[in-house]
Here is the input.
Amino acid sequence: MTSSILDQVRSIASDLFGVPVDRIVAESSPEMIEAWDSTQHLNFVLALEEKFGLQLSPEEMEQMRNVGEAARLVETKLQKASR
Amino acid sequence: MISEPSGLDLRSEADRLISAGSEELASLRLAELWRNEASASAAAFLVSRYEQLRGKLPLVCYRLAILRSFTVEPVLPLLRADAFVHGIDLTVQLGDFNAYAQEILDPDSSLYRFAPDAVILAARTADLAPDLWHEYPDLALEAVPAVVRRVSNSFRQWVRAFRERSSAALVVHSLELPARPGMGLLDAQENKGQSAAIQQINQELRQIASEHCGVYALDYDGLVARYGRLHWHDERKWLIARMPIAADHLVYLAREWLRFLVPLAGKTAKVLVTDLDNTLWGGVIGEDGMTGIKLGPEYPGAAYQNLQRAMLDLARRGILLAICSKNNLEDAMEALENHPGMLLTPKHFAAVRIDWNDKAQNLREIAAELNVGMEALAFLDDNPVERQQVRSALPEVTIVDLPEDPQAYAAAVRDCPVFERLSLSSEDSQRTTLYAVRRKRSQTEQAFQSKEDFFRYLEQEAEVLPVSPATLARVAQLTQKTNQFNLTTQRHTEQQIADMAARPGWQVLSIKVRDRFGDHGLVGVAITRDQAETCEIETFLLSCRVIGRTVETALLSHVAQGAVARGRQRLAGRFSPTRKNAPARDFYARHGFQLLEENRDGSVWTLDLRHHTIATPAWIRLKTAEGEHN
Here is the structure.
């Protein structure tokens, strides 16, 4: 995974969940971040869609159990779109 | 000089400035971040940081309730961030899904307990009129008018009920048309189709809005169409989260809401100050000359004509135009007066500064000449360096952000919410002419020996009348926009003015003024309330157009005469100082009032009407509902 996408996803998570970006890692998950509730999960999904110009399905939304998985998902979708 | 700091840099710089206590600078950085990146994530950041700056920035607090039939939660951070950047601290309350009818009809609902300043009613066509949406093909043709009536009547009933229970502004979404009508092409072939039925409801909604003060239709269908019907929606999000709008379009709904909230919260600009070279025309007049500049109906000059057309439209809304440009005066005037492609001419500009001085200084002079505060100015310039300098020197001035491509200039001006108006008075549409007349008058004023000579020469006629349905909008507008000669700076909506005028013991008076140079229209308001033997002045204000010409004395004399006629023995009034209203500070002292008390919040004054009278100045002919004086 390129670091730039993970970094961009980390920075979005930092903005949305109000946690400094250096404290957000690939493993950061709703269990570790207090503000990451179901409403914020929707906001997180929407922010990723907006930022990377893609749409995530309900199944994909459920797959995103931490920041790293979200970044991987975005990267896969971007690669598919560019083919 | 203008480097492009990254979003992360701007974030950390804003945080550094916040901890250093430089609130104004931090706010500039946050606004810059928002200009570069109006995203959900930047919005979340802005909201959390502006919340820390509350109380340290001059923000207007505004309460908004949203009644809705779909998920709008993700729009709120975008809306609040955009509002903060426009100087508005928005508190938002959301209604429950599809509970809007109960909330409006029940006087004890959480909607009214919230005491909103404004309410948005956002319901989808599919929720309000399911029979005109999915079920349309099943509907018998004869049944369509009944559905149109049912939905229009619901709107009418809600608006009436709302108006009885609240004086807040109400913004109602119009109904969206289907992207793919049930009957396909047939839908466009006759006047009774699905789209036609929905459009008829929208037309009714406009009618209902026009019949009530402070009720406005939001052209939701127009909004969706502007950004592309098929791109606007995300059906999957609707199904899993009741969120019908695609992630990258949420910001457009936020912006549309803000177009209403900016004028409602009084954060409008009164003057658009424009640069010339590469803004009003392409190229540099001093170098390219009359034949070299780009300005005309074809590419590439059409972009600049389109911008001029947008500015003419603003003038029709009552926004004054002014020029602030670094140029040789003769070169620039030659183009302004004689270039065949110019749609704007010198007479459209209320103030002109064409020289080599610093633009911030020129903007200060323009504000002084037009008698407006700096926050009333908006500045238009193609040069990002000039924009940045003005932004740092004069943070109150709205900077219109011009994109790089001149083809997009006109849209940038039209999209700027500070130029939105929610109602127009006849003064608004004539303002450009009024100011042209005023420029002539101040040239005359300098030729007189004494002020009295000048006043006599003016031949002022004033007319004092109680507020009427025809003048309600203008009276409310004056209470919302007058900053300088305003003793209490109480802001009122049209509905609040109408309520006060209807209350026993209250008087809402307006004054119109004309003089030998022209008609100024309605320029002053006095609102009083009789309490036992005292007539209390709640509001007393005068448009900056007529400050310093004793019009206030004429209005006060009428207020005093009315109080005596109603058997009152005293006039009482309050002066509440603001950053702007120094011109009104000595008003009561000048008219013989006695100071009763004074503290940080202001001063209280009284005048014994049994021993004092206030005469209308000899040089003003005062007409009233009761007849003519002087």
